[in-house]
Automatic annotation (TrEMBL):
Its EC number is 2.1.1.216. GO terms for biological process: tRNA N2-guanine methylation. Zn(2+) binds at residues 267, 270, 285, 288. It catalyses: guanosine(26) in tRNA + 2 S-adenosyl-L-methionine = N(2)-dimethylguanosine(26) in tRNA + 2 S-adenosyl-L-homocysteine + 2 H(+). It holds the Pfam family TRM. S-adenosyl-L-methionine binds at residues 55, 86, 103, 131-132. This is tRNA (guanine(26)-N(2))-dimethyltransferase. Gene3D superfamilies: N2,N2-dimethylguanosine tRNA methyltransferase, C-terminal domain, Vaccinia Virus protein VP39. Keywords: Metal-binding, Methyltransferase, RNA-binding, S-adenosyl-L-methionine, Transferase, tRNA processing, tRNA-binding, Zinc.
Length: 408
């Protein structure tokens, strides 16, 4: 049955559905760009239906994490709540016992209030108008127990990381989305240096680079508070980076976490990337011997926790109400393949270009590497990408042999 949505400051609202939530949102037809695409930033309150996939994964994550950690009714903070959809879904779908939803915009708060009432979750969602960082510090001063802080800003999460870590007090999970992919991928090196305090650069592994820079930044900020930090899930989708990091208090754990950082070294000539723990002595390219370019520090560890992803796959398989169930499972299954392989991925097209041959199928490259006894998988970062523990000369040889240029 259709729902009648009230107007918001004279602006008409329309019904939208996402997961188990029924929502009142600004009418997308009123905020179309000249090319006919909906621009959520033009609406009176930001609501982006394309981020439903991000929210699907978030709901599945919290359900799986809470089960593995034995947490009943986890407490969630969403300090940039917007329309309130994420807070509502955490309450409806993830078993959250308490969700703090905060936004500085009074119009957004009024819309979030409508959506909270429509979905009958007012007993679990605490709504407030205020500054995100100030609210997070208030939670810390009150010593409120928080299990998850979810940062989903328009742009960079960097301005909110410190306050989020303060609210968590070294226990729980910080989930962060970054849509400022131009700096993170090295297109805007000055902004990358300013926001994330790294030596900037642009590699041929732009998306993996972006994920590892954000994860590394959170680990360093956590360590400055003497918190250890473990990456539980990290991925790139559509136009954003998403990272989930679990915190544990203790200076020794912080020191241990810092050991997972390195510099991303890459050779533009050969298409090879590796991690250099000593940037002042990174070593030459294993193929041509030339000095590499460096980006970092970045996170150089696994992209996910295998037990967590297994549980997430189980949860997602049973959650038929997810807006993007098939896509969620596809991502999780691919990440499960990548969990144990930490080496930067290879772009098969780049390797083929260096060898001056046509690109073979990345899937065939993976199959051949496995036949040779190496671990190998495709990567969610790039359809042309392959991740493996095989040495560079083996990968080059396989690409050469499988190239259509050498068929027959």
């Amino acid at each position: 049955m259709a729902m009648d949505c009230p107007a918001l400051d004279g602006e008409p609202l329309v019904e939208a559905r996402e997961g188990l939530a029924r929502l009142c949102v600004p009418d997308p037809k009123r905020y179309l760009r000249p090319d006919g695409v909906y621009e959520p930033a033009w609406a009176p309150v930001f609501y982006n239906p394309r981020m439903a996939f991000n929210r699907d994964v978030a709901v599945v994550f919290l359900r799986a994490w809470a089960k593995l950690r034995g947490v009943d009714e986890p407490v969630v903070v969403e300090p940039l709540a917007g329309s309130g959809v994420r807070a509502v879904r955490y309450a409806l779908e993830a078993g959250a016992g308490r969700v703090y939803a905060v936004d500085i915009d009074p119009v957004a708060v009024r819309l979030a209030e409508i959506n909270i009432e429509v979905n009958k979750v007012a007993d679990r969602v605490y709504l407030a108008q205020g500054d995100a960082n100030a609210f997070l510090h208030t939670l810390r001063s009150k010593k409120a127990r928080v299990h998850l802080v979810d940062l989903d800003p328009f742009g960079s999460p960097a301005p909110f990381i410190e306050a989020s870590l303060a609210a968590l007090r070294g226990r729980g999970v910080l989930a962060a989305t970054a849509t400022d992919t131009a700096p993170l991928t090295g297109t805007h090196p000055a902004a990358l240096r300013r926001r994330y305090d790294v030596v900037p650069g642009r590699s041929f592994l732009e998306k993996e680079q972006a994920v590892r820079i954000l994860a590394g930044y959170i680990i360093r900020r956590a360590a400055s508070r003497e918190y250890g930090a473990k990456v539980l899930l990290a991925y790139y989708a559509d136009y954003y980076v998403r990272v989930y990091v679990e915190l544990v208090p203790g200076a020794r754990r912080a020191d241990k976490s810092l050991e997972s950082l390195a510099y991303l070294a890459f050779c533009p000539k050969c298409g090879i990337a590796w991690y250099a723990s000593k940037p002042w002595r990174p070593g030459g390219c294993p193929r041509c011997g030339s000095q590499p370019q460096l980006i970092g520090p970045v996170y150089a560890g696994p992209l996910c926790d295998e037990k967590l992803v297994d549980e997430m796959i189980r949860v997602a398989s049973e959650a038929s109400w997810l807006s993007n169930q098939a896509r969620t499972l596809e991502l999780l299954r691919q990440l499960r393949e990548e969990c144990g392989l930490v080496n930067p991925h290879y772009r098969v097209d780049k390797v083929a270009s260096v060898l001056k041959v046509n690109m073979p199928s990345p899937r065939l490259v993976v199959e051949e590497l496995r036949r040779l006894g190496y671990r190998a998988t495709l990567t969610h970062f790039d359809k042309r990408g392959v991740r493996s523990d095989a040495p560079p000369d083996v990968i080059y040889n396989v690409v050469w042999r499988l190239s259509p240029s050498n068929a027959g």
